[in-house]
Amino acid sequence: xxxxxxxxxxxxxxxxxxxxxxxxxxxxxxxxxxxxxxxxxxxxxxxxxxxxxxxxxxxxxxxxxxxxxxxxxxxxxxxxxxxxxxxxxxxxxxxxxxxxxxxxxxxxxxxxxxxxxxxxxxxxxxxxxxxxxxxxxxxxxxxxxxxxxxxxxxxxxxxxxxxxxxxxxxxxxxxxxxxxxxxxxxxxxxxxxxxxxxxxxxxxxxxxxxxxxxxxxxxxxxxxxxxxxxxxxxxxxxxxxxxxxxxxxxxxxxxxxxxxxxxxxxxxxxxxxxxxxxx
Length: 279
Prior knowledge:
single chain, 279 residues, Rossmann fold, 2 domains, 6-stranded mixed β-sheet, 5-stranded parallel β-sheet, 9 helices, elongated
């Protein structure tokens, strides 16, 4: 089973473990760009400590309260969101001035090696395969997942645009992107009608989205689709047919149906929450 951690999960994990950080042992919190800056900022704010990134710290650019510059000191709490084999920590340490005292903290520690060999403090070990919600668009397992379209790859249409006519056609052609994957993905399962396949495929080409399949609803009109209802159940059926191991969905209601009926975890982009199946 895939283990999902959201930004909310990360914030809660930090809050539960703040007591494990000896705040007298360092002068500044240094986050590893990019993902490590999220927990580093949360920790520095909770502890009211200065914040920097590795290159900035080396250059003496350290941010105190309201961003005011402060002295950097020589004791660093080096923070990353997760750790696997310690390579990111090692690269960051090389950027720091010689003689800097470093404590390495990973919010989510490694599961393939002994955590103590690559970091000094870790708050939680999350086994693999694992998905961090702030980084899902580059995950190596994207080809194994299912994806909603509107509210995931592009924004949802507005009520005024949902006329099944010219305004909707304009939306299909010009919808702004939301979460664009950085590698090929698996199966798109969308509530859009099959008759809008040409416009949908054109948008995907224009935004460089590579995918294995595109499943659209078979109804002739919006009215027929609305009368049929149960889009979450239909998506769950398609997810089972396609054999996806996880689904990215914009609607929390539909996501709950997919998780329940397909027996797979769902990440909801609208609420930024993981919906975990009970199976």
